[in-house]
Batch of 2 targets.
Target 1
Amino acid sequence: MEGEIRLEELCKKFEDVVAVDGIDVDMPPGEFFTLLGPSGCGKTTTLRMIAGFERPTSGRILLDGNDVARVPPHQRNVNTVFQSYALFPHLDVAKNVAFGLKYHKLSKEERATRVRDALEMVDMAEFAGRKADQLSGGQQQRVALARALVLRPRVLLLDEPLGALDAQLRKNLQVELKALQAELGITFIFVTHDQSEALTMSDRIAVMYRGRVEQAASPKEIYEEPDTVFVADFLGVSNLLDATALGQDGAACTVEVGGRKLRAEQGATDARGEVKVMIRPERIVLEPHANQGDDRLPGIVERSVFLGGSYEVHVRVLGGELLRAMVPNDGSAASADLEPGAAVSLRLPPDAVRVLTRSEPDEATDGVEESEAEDVPAQLP
Amino acid sequence: MSRLRNPWGQPRFLALITGGYIVWSVVPVLIAIAFAFNNGRSRTTWQGFSTRWFTGETGSVLHDPALRDALGHTLLLAVICVAVATPLGVALALGLQRWRGRGSGSVNSLMLLPLVTPEIVMGVALLLLFLQVFSGIGLGTDAQAIGQITFTLSYVVVIVRGRLVSIGPEFEEAAADLGAPRRDQFFRVLLPLLAPAIVASAAVAFAVSIDDFVVTQYLSSDASTTTVSMLLYSSARGAPTPALNAIATVNLLITLLTLAFAYYVYRRFAGRDEAASLATMEV
Amino acid sequence: MRSRWTWRLVALPGVAWLSVFFLVAFYAVMAVAFGNQDTLSQPIPHWNPLDWNVGYVLDTLDNFFSGGPFLKVSIRTIEFVAIAVALSLLIGYPVAYFTARHAGRWRGAILLALILPLWINYLMRMLAWINLLAPDGIGSDVLHSVGIEKLFLTMGLLDEPGGWLNGQPTTVILALLYGYIPFFILPLFVAIERIDRRHIEAARDLGGSPASAFFRVTLPLSVPGILAGAVLISLPMFGDYYTADLVSASTQTNMMGNQIDEFMRQGSEKVTGAALTLLLSVFLLGLMFYYLRTTRRAGTTAQTT
């Protein structure tokens, strides 16, 4: 299989800070795989270890079955697109792209052809003679891409390549990158902290937090079936509620939230005692207050945010928590129900309610922050 | 942004002080340069324009052996100094910048010490070194060169290191990523990017060497090891001719040209802001 | 992958050089100072610390504490340096402030003018003044006609008309000022420039007058720059001998540097010279390390605070 990466118990320590805490990840060949997480979670360190710029403290990095953890970066068939593009300032675009071809035993003509093809692939052929400082951010990024892809690596690593670009450019490049990956069929390993970017582009996502992989799955699964509170919260609104799990009744778990009983059919339904439950905003059904009955929480609307195609309605339920519901703007909801102060009833369908047991660490002080910051001494192998 | 008033009144007052300072600072030297072109022997009374003290038959920089030799010796020391201090300093800068683990702090301090040590302390220390320890070498040109190298080294390191910091590790990483082995990372990527700083630091070392006085004097042996600075010192209070002004002017010209060259090289290849900080020598 | 020793090896030649020609050289000073001298008054260095003879150093110290000539010279040196630094601050701060704040489009030219003296041979700058202050010099005439000479005479700052270059402390101090003030202004300019204008705007915003904004915001924030500049110029000044030699040529204005120079280059008592050098270094050690500390910290933070 070409371009498969497996990380086994991969660990990286800097002085006394643990940046990557023994992770196991499978990155199948030919996929667009994303490492997603907040700054300091270890995603960039992991990527750098795959590239070879950091030496793992322990663990294995298997590239198509071979452990490359101690192989220097210039001997791995893996190429990187850097966050700052790192185009060589003293060389023009064409020479930048041709840089790595020197080590590939090609004739002069073959080199020139490959360079041209690579530049055409990223639409930068006319800029061949320019220097890096004469290009815009988006253009530099393309050249960086071409420079890496011209070497036909099995795996392409991308370290937050779209971070420095403005929103519109970002969206366009997201589409282009995804199309490029599909066309080339090679493995892309993409690092980002932007969850919507990850959801849009990836075939699989590994959500990282504090050096560990919280969950690795498809975007849909990560969004709809998060394993932990962190993952639930990181991707979209999660509407987390503190609850007490009372017991199971067939497929459903009965939980008590603020004095009311709800049923949950997702997640850790066999849990007991203190848990958290979550439901995505678009699964909450907003009903008039008059509707009572099972699976409902009464509340008062605090405000409604108009988003064009929908409303995000903030409802303070009688237990005190704030829930956010997504109501489509299709006329189905009575406008009176969306006014601040309106009394409403929120129906939470059991198949959309998920029980989560992992305790929520304090996110406010992320001690791992330092390991990803720039003042960690860059360790050239 | 609105112009903030200063507490002493209008900016005009400050402008006056600044202007006055600049005049006070520069004019005496300009007058000294002017008198280098004096037709007569006086350094205080103008007697007409002439270049006799530069190129004249007798007593000029070009023809007076004492003056000529001093200039020659100054340049000789500068060339030796640059030839040794530059590679030594570049290596030290690279090694220091990439030093991993303990010791880098001490080495860094050691490197900076010559810059803050008063010259007489260095002069005395080196004098005793060459009298008591390396008496085989003794005083003279070699000792002078060694002494100069010892502190110009620091200038080279500071300049090159500054450039290394702004270059950062990522270009070499990118090169490695693209398949370049260690050697190529250095020669194909780092060295070209570092070149302007190396040239600039060499030029600065040259200029510093030319104008050095205390260490050079302390390590001198006889008249043949006299430099322009030493000549100025020994003759200034005597009754010299404007030839002294002339040689000082020549010295100054060489210094300014060297520095202008360094600034230009840096600016052309490394960017404007870098050149500006080079000029202010932020140590 | 490269070992941790590769880069250290690259640095080795430079480190070795500095170790030999700086550290060992300084050790030689100590060996001589704690050594002995032969019948021809040539030094006999004692290299082994266990052999060290504190005699000469103690004699030198004794000279200080019992009011001998060394003490006089030291006090004079401290006076000269203190006054010169104070004057540098008085003149230099407004110049630095103006250049940083109000120079506008003239800034480049002004900076050039400020940088220039740094690269003009120090001795040439002194030569310029010797020419001017000679009894028949232009400077002498100007000072006479403008009345400054008279002022200085009456204030006791000048001994006789036209005698600027005859052992006058005033001239030495002013020469030191002239010589070193550029090295003060430039770092100070950089420090003032770095002060975030938003602090000042905030002070003004909160109702402060320009004067109070200056005294309560700008000035305190520029103190580190002032200290750094003061240390930067006082270090060489304490060791200066050539300035006094050039503009005074009288032992009346001897600074510590002159004292050491006499012993080392002109006289024969190198042991005492070494002892004095040692004592001077110890005295200045504090200043040197302070400066190293602040510049290293300044390298990693963006603001002067």
Note: Chain B has a mean pLDDT of 88.
Target 2
Amino acid sequence: MPGPFTVSEVSDGIEMLIRNLLFAAAILLLGVGVKNPYHLELLTFIGIHTLLALGLNMLMGYAGQISLGHAAFYGLGAYATGILTVHWHWSPWISLPATLALAAAVALLVALPMLRLSGFYLGMGTLGFGMIGFILFRGWSSVTGGDSGLVGIPSLAVGPFTFSSGVRYFYLVWGTVFVSFILCERIVRSRVGRALRAIHDSEKAAAAMGIDTSRLKISVFVLSALFAALAGFLYAHLVSFVSPSSFDFLVSVRIVTMVVIGGMASIWGSLLGASLLTVLPDWLHVFSDYEMLVYGLVLMVVMIFLPQGLTRGILDLYERSRNRREGRSPSA
Amino acid sequence: MRDRETDEKAVPPLLKIEGISKSFGGIQALYDVSFEVFPETIHAIIGPNGAGKTTLFNIITGVSAPDAGAIRYGPRNIVGKQVHELVAQGIARTFQNVELFGSMSAMENVLVGRHVRTACGFVGAMGRWSWVRTEEEEARQKAMDLLRFVGLDSVAHTRSSDLPFGWQRFLEIARALATEPRVLLLDEPASGLNAVETQRLGELLQEIRGRGVTLLLVEHDMSLTMGVSDRILVLHQGKRLAEGTPREIQEDDAVICAYLGKGI
């Protein structure tokens, strides 16, 4: 009779520790081993995208609320720190908390009316918000530099130690990803994480368990905006230049795709989805004009054959094959 | 006259439903319904389909607001309170069509029930301070006890959607109990259960009452209702038709005429 264990329960305690240690070791090794500056930069971008996907996964994968405007928060983080450091000459380390506070405030304002919506309507609403963000980045040229962008964003430094070289920034970004993973894992396994999943499964029953669903949805929206803004901050100080096209509608869609392909409600899926969606367009340049076509095809194949996303899909395949080897009937 | 009357007079009612009316469009779903629920009793609401039972349930649990009337829970009028606020105050419910969290294990479902009795938020979860770990440990202990209470401890780690339907019903009761309710509302708990499970449900309801919980149930299974209820309210076309002990209800002419459909 016993069915499969839920994923969140099998991987508890010691297993989690081992996984995180392996993750830390992998980051260290990659930093030491990868010498090619182009590859290092690609890996750094994967880290930034992982933060984006991770944040959206908390909202979308766990709480089941879609956002098609997350690029606006990504852009908000990048532009806010760009403006504060370039125009106002703030130190990036003071601009960081200010940027995050601003993102949280904007997210709160957006979430209050927005999260009354659900399903397609929430999608449309957040899409509109993303558009407004993009128009502001482009149109408010006296502050944002308009289409020509904002240049001269300083690189990060602690005293004499600058995060200028490829490997140093790589470690900074992946250190952030590592800490974020641990924090999100803790959230997912807590009372709050269960409440988020409860909302996803049945909002009616969640309310009947005493969960203040609107408040929790707003909180997780703010949390996911914070991750996006943090990614934007890291992006801006890495490339030292921001322009509106990095935060348009397609970027929002790409973040959603990272979550869906990697796996909804899967922290590690965010890493996988971000990696694929960062590396794939790079490879797909070979197909030049057909890039979007191949991209769409990949998305369709994943959706049809592994609707749970790659992580969960591969785990399921693995469990099924193991069950078969042990002569048990495959579990549903 | 009534055998329990003298006992109940001494104890104030836990829930006092006063003149509740509710209409949807032109349809009067409830018309001036009043009754009292005494602590640690099992109170059933019966009536033919469309009598307004579910509407009444939704009003008591805060899902919808009445057009007129009050619901006194202890000294307070709870009309207008939101569902989640009422749960915190001790009013829990189960659903007619079982609303479990399908992607979660039985254990996790019950743990969600502990939500209102625990406090860890985002910051606490990320910090995992010692009080958070203690709270989680206690919640797991209590959840396990409740699963044992309803007889589901052996499937604690099974996905709730993989459980047979009858077990899901019992799981939903355990989950509602995890909120530590003073009043538990059960919406047709026996529907979909086989005879053995229905009997087990009857025993369970009495055990729950024994734990000091007041039960209010909507139920179609007459032998269960008559067997376990202390009092029964009969609704007919949105109006209170009768209220009393199972025996009184069975002997009530109006009830026999309207509900059981037998000629006099």
Note: The mean pLDDT of chain B is 90.
